[in-house]
Amino acid sequence: RLDPPAGSRLVELGGGTGRNLLFFGERLASFAEVDLVDLCPSLLAEAHRRTAEMPNVRVVEADAVTFRREEPVDCAYFSYALTMIPDWRGALDNALSLLRPGGLLGVVDFFVSEASPPAGAARHGAFDRFFWPRWFARDGVRPCPDHLRRLQELLPDHVVEERRAPVPYLPGLRVPYYLFIGRKAGA
Fold it and tell me: What is the largest CA-CA distance in the chain?
């Protein structure tokens, strides 16, 4: 959905095994630089294996809150990682600092709405607001309404899609998630 053009510089924060890079397909080779950042050595070992033949991809063991680059990037993104970062506000601030003016920040992640969300936003019932945070907490995942609200405040120029997806081992239940793409001011 981000659709970065050839020659772009990208960073995936909380990139884990590098699996998301495969979604770019043949376009991945057209990007100038791609940094895949994560803190988990075992996940990064798989990312190194996956990207061994990709000279424009750099796998970096670093914290999404403190990772730095010399040059700004055109696109930064989190894919189901923001809800696992304890200092998620710091991670968002850092992602914005990595972006060039006019750059894109993309986030896809689980969430639950506020009890009384703003007009036009998804409203999840009491079951969703109670069940999903407890279900995911055992894996260190913390879905909440604060992430999406903060993204919208930081990047007023954005698009959001709120959706639901099936969950393995929980037939009939669909977990709420969102897709967010925001543009940093400037350019």
Answer: 49
Q: Are 50 and 118 a contacting pair, CB within 8 Å? A: no
CA atoms of 4 and 163, how far apart (whole Å): 23
Rounded to the nearest angstrom, the gap between the alpha carbon of residue 84 and the centroid of all alpha carbons in its chain is 10
- pLDDT tens digits for 132-187? 999 999 999 999 999 999 999 999 999 999 999 998 888 899 999 999 999 999 86
DSSP notation for 42-109: HHHHHHHHHHTT-TTEEEEE--TTT---SS-EEEEEEES-GGG-TTHHHHHHHHHHHEEEEEEEEEEE
Structural contact between residues 169 and 85, judged by C-beta atoms closer than 8 angstroms:
no
